[in-house]
Amino acid sequence: MKYIKEYRPILYNSLVLNSKLSSYLVEIDQQARDRLDTIIQQTAQVQGVTERLKADDPMAWVGKMNNIRCAAEEIISKEIIFL
After folding, report:
1. In angstroms, rounded to a whole number, what is the distance separating the alpha carbons of residues 83 and 80?
2. Residue 23 lies in domain
3. Per-residue pLDDT at 38
4. How many structural domains are present in the chain?
């Protein structure tokens, strides 16, 4: 909401005037969460980050998953949130 209010004031005002700000934010949040899950799953599969790795070397698994999550969040920010 802060980003829209500051950098996209016309959209923000339109959403507020039409009482659609909350539903818009919920929709964007849901899209971002769904896309995040998809990116994480696909990237983990491509990089071979499996449950077996998690069982064999939990610290390596956590490190790789954290890297994947950070990269996915950056993609989501550019694709969906900060249009």
Report:
1. 6
2. 2-81
3. 97
4. 1
Report yes or no: 2 and 21 within 8 Å, Cβ to Cβ: no
Average pLDDT along the chain, 83 residues, taken 10 residues at a time: 93 97 96 97 97 96 98 95 80
Tokens encoding 12? 């923000």
Q: Give dist(CA 43, CA 26) in Å, integer.
A: 26
* C-beta separation of 9 from 29 below 8 A: no
How far is residue 28's CA from residue 11's CA, in Å, rounded to a whole number?
A: 14
Neighbours of 32 (CB within 10 A): 16
Angle at 81 between CA 76 and CA 83, to 5 degrees: 105
Give the separation between CA 45 and CA 68, rounded to whole angstroms: 11
